[in-house]
Amino acid sequence: MPAATPDTTTAELVEWVGWLREHYRLDDRLPEHWQTEPAIVAELAALHRAWRTAFRPAAAGADPVHWHDALARVLDRLEDWQAVARRRRGVGRSVS
User: Is 30 helix (H, G, I), strand (E, B) or coil?
Assistant: First the structure.
């Protein structure tokens, strides 16, 4: 897995994604092996950075709402990335 971000270690990202999956009950939307897809790692690293900013004590009142909007958009993109990964692996192709 590539490094998460300059200010977040891989271990921190793994721990946060575990929390995210549990807190928001996203087991069916976040792939278990998300670390193997660089695009998904990048999406989650960006989401983590935005989360840290949105929920800091000095954050504006609407920042958490904006973060939840971003979460919804990221989850939609993750579904797209997972579909691409499945096609690369040949999963879900109809046999003619």
Answer: coil
16 part of a folded domain: yes
User: DSSP assignment of 52-95, as one string?
Assistant: HHHTSTT--TTHHHHHHHHHHHHHHHHHHHHHHHHHHHTTTPPP
- For 34-91, the pLDDT digits (tens) are 998 888 899 999 999 999 999 999 999 999 999 999 999 999 999 888 888 778 888 6
pTM as predicted: 0.80
In a domain, 29, yes or no: yes
Domain count within the chain? 1
Q: How many CA atoms does the CB half-sphere of 22 hold within 13 Å?
A: 6
